[in-house]
Amino acid sequence: MASPSPKSARFFVALLPPQPVQDAITAIKQEVERRFGSRAALKSPPHITLQPPFNWSLERLDELQHHLHRFAHQQRPIPIVLEGFGAFPPRVIYVDVHQTAALMAVQPALVTHLETHFGLREGYRTGSDHRRASWPFTPHVTIGFRDLAPAAFHQAWAEFEHRPFSAEFEVPTLTLLRHDGQVWQIFSELPLSASKA
């Protein structure tokens, strides 16, 4: 007998680079796995998180997608500039993302939209203490985290701190990703389709 399907799933909302940039960043993630033992970043496509992971009832999935579509329809494509690497010591290394006006405006607008319509809160983490943890939005594309041991972090950061990397592109869609129990998969892509004034 088949087990019942889950009633909820984990989702997050992000901006994804175009495929050639994703491929270049995935190659760097694979290097970090091979050389420094961190593979957690390979469980999702390269992305800039706008709304961190949250649980969502599958019965209300159409409602979530409808509101995300409405939000995306009010936004224009977002110019993105990637340059160099950054870190959140002692576990996270990432491709650095310039804090452009468009990017820094869309993230709080999305969080406010989701909080207003659904009560979602950016940065809320579940755990034993159930406290809300908030932090400033620092756009980045993670290449190593969580399972990157502190000693390996220091070795990796010594190499990536001054390594060049750059890309410029425009993101035309907002992406909803869903966790399938193993990895994050693209669930839907919503066009950023507001016309220029």
Textual characterization of the structure:
This protein has 197 residues and is an alpha+beta fold. It has a single domain, classed as Cyclic phosphodiesterase (Cyclic Phosphodiesterase, Chain: A). The protein has helices spanning 19-36, 61-73, 101-118, 150-160; strands at 8-15, 48-57, 78-88, 92-97, 140-144, 166-171, 173-179, 184-191. α2 (61-73) packs antiparallel against α3 (101-118). The longest helix has 18 residues, at 19-36. The model is unreliable at 124-133 (pLDDT under 50).
Features:
globular, four-stranded antiparallel β-sheet, Cyclic Phosphodiesterase, Chain: A, single chain, 197 residues, alpha+beta, 8 strands
Outline the fold blueprint.
Layout: E1 8-15, H1 19-36, E2 48-57, H2 61-73, E3 78-88, E4 92-97, H3 101-118, E5 140-144, H4 150-160, E6 166-171, E7 173-179, E8 184-191
Antiparallel strand pairs: 1-2, 1-7, 3-4, 3-6, 4-5, 7-8
Helix pairs in contact: 2-3
The N- to C-terminal Cα distance equals 57 Å
**What would you call the shape?**
globular
Instruction: Estimate percent helicity.
Output: 25-40%
Oligomer: single chain
What structural category do the secondary elements indicate?
alpha+beta
Q: How many E-type strands?
A: 8
Identify the strand order in the major beta sheet.
Answer: 2-1-7-8
What gyration radius follows from the Cα positions, in whole Å? 17 Å
SS field, number of helical segments? 4
For the largest beta-sheet, the strand count, sense and barrel status come to:
4 strands, antiparallel
Identify the CATH homologous superfamily.
Answer: Cyclic phosphodiesterase
Instruction: Just name the CATH architecture.
Output: Alpha-Beta Complex
CATH class: Alpha Beta
CATH topology: Cyclic Phosphodiesterase, Chain: A
Mean pLDDT reading: 91
In what range is the share of β-strand residues?
25-35%
